[in-house]
Amino acid sequence: MVALMPDGPRPPNPFDPTRAAYKDWLHVNFFDHESGCVGLINASLHGDPADPRATAVGAALLHVPQSGWFGNVEVSRAAEARVGLSSIALPNAAIAIDSALGRVVAAAKMGALEIELEATATSSGYELPGAVAFGSGWMSWSVIPRLTLRGTVRLDGRVLRLDGASAYQDHNWGRWHWGDDGRWEWGAFVAPDAGPAFVLARPTNRARTAIAPPTLMVVHGSRRRIFAGASVEVRYEGVLDVRLRRLPGVLAAMHQDRVRPRLPERVHIRCRDGIDEVTIAFTATDAAQLIAGDPAVPGYAFIHELAGTFEASGRIGGADVRTRGLGVFEYLL
Amino acid sequence: MTRLSLGEYIAALVQTLADHEPWSAERLRVVVGDRTARIALDEEAVDVAFAGSRLVVRVADSPPQAIDGFGGTDRATTMAMMDGLLEVEEAIVSGRLEMRGDVEGVNRIGMAIDILIDASTRVPPLRDLARRFMRDSTAVAAVPDTINDDATEIALLARLGLLPEPKAIS
Questions:
Q1: ipTM of the predicted structure?
Q2: Interchain contact B66–A (C-beta under 8 A)
Q3: pTM of the predicted model, to two decimals?
Q4: Overall average pLDDT of the B140-159 stretch
Q5: For residue A293, how far is the Cα from the chain centroid?
Q6: Which of A22, A241, A296, A318 is deepest in the core (most CB within 10 A)?
Q7: Which residues, in sequence order, are CB contacts of A65 under 8 Å at separation 6+?
């Protein structure tokens, strides 16, 4: 058991002048190495909780190799969300963090897709030491790079048991409006069993002309290494040619100019800091587009979830690493 | 709760927009101007126009020459698009969604729909109406898988009489 730092939603206080831009986002990914399925559950809050326009958005998606994406996104009123000290429960998706026992519990039901997860942290959590500038405001982030998993996915009568799968969990919160000139690139690449997990993150802008230094975290057993700044190179290759699943469908219908975005097919990450080095090659096989609309001001963000596989090699903490596994790369446009 | 007719849905959408985002309702009126659109869903069809600032929805009875644009589909297609299972482009090419009129008329229908969808991100009662529509439509048959390839597109062009005459070979 790995105890975690207490974590949970960070709603604004009533006198916060930026509360209209409030965002809070609990997120779980799971990777079933045996079937190749990759999934996610999100439970998020958008806007001033006291504003009747504020929304709570639940998302549950499952990518099945050769079959595509299943699941959906549901937008509710924020007042319909039950927000606890360490949990967000929406009508169709919920995530709770039990920091003392190092557990994350998540569940979702979207149409024919039902997911139930109970994950246990095998690595300690990490929280950014301070918020980073993002769009018109700021963003903060905490992450548990690797968790073991018990759970079940049900889809149209079929059952996928997730015992033996891996999970990743993070939490974003801050103040920004969707449609601001802020974007991020993020990836979680998780090897099977007790292999390493890699997490990439970097904020950028709409034109990708102001790319902040990236960070790559490696967790392998009890070791954790963080590469940052100039020691991390990220390079894109190719264009992913797939039919996107775009959600929510109503917003997708409005944004016909986003049907075929230019998404990378491969992501190459190379880290060298003079002590350790890691090379990761991620190949996307499919993508979904989640459209986030702001409840307070007109504006949208287009969050692309790229599912695929990766290979990694290098040297971490004096030990050679050579592995492969499943990954998700998130690319905002 | 009784099922709303197509005309009642349209009236409710526009009234809800006016109640919660009057500036968007004003944009809608400017975009529509003095045009009349015929909207069809399954067996229902209505003519929609503004008389000043007042929305007028009536059972489709205008002569075709009085209509500036037409948009028609069925509930199954609408549900599939709302669920993100079918793209607008796929619905058009497969013949499940029909838009007719001159470029200006069709564009104005699209802009009016965009204004309503955009406002729905900030106006929860508009999303309530969408949910009600989906509840009302749960009994409709699912849209079969749509395959859009060159043959589908050529079939659409042929249906619309837009294929060039084959060249005579001398």
A1: 0.91
A2: no
A3: 0.93
A4: 71
A5: 18
A6: A22
A7: A35, A36, A37, A285
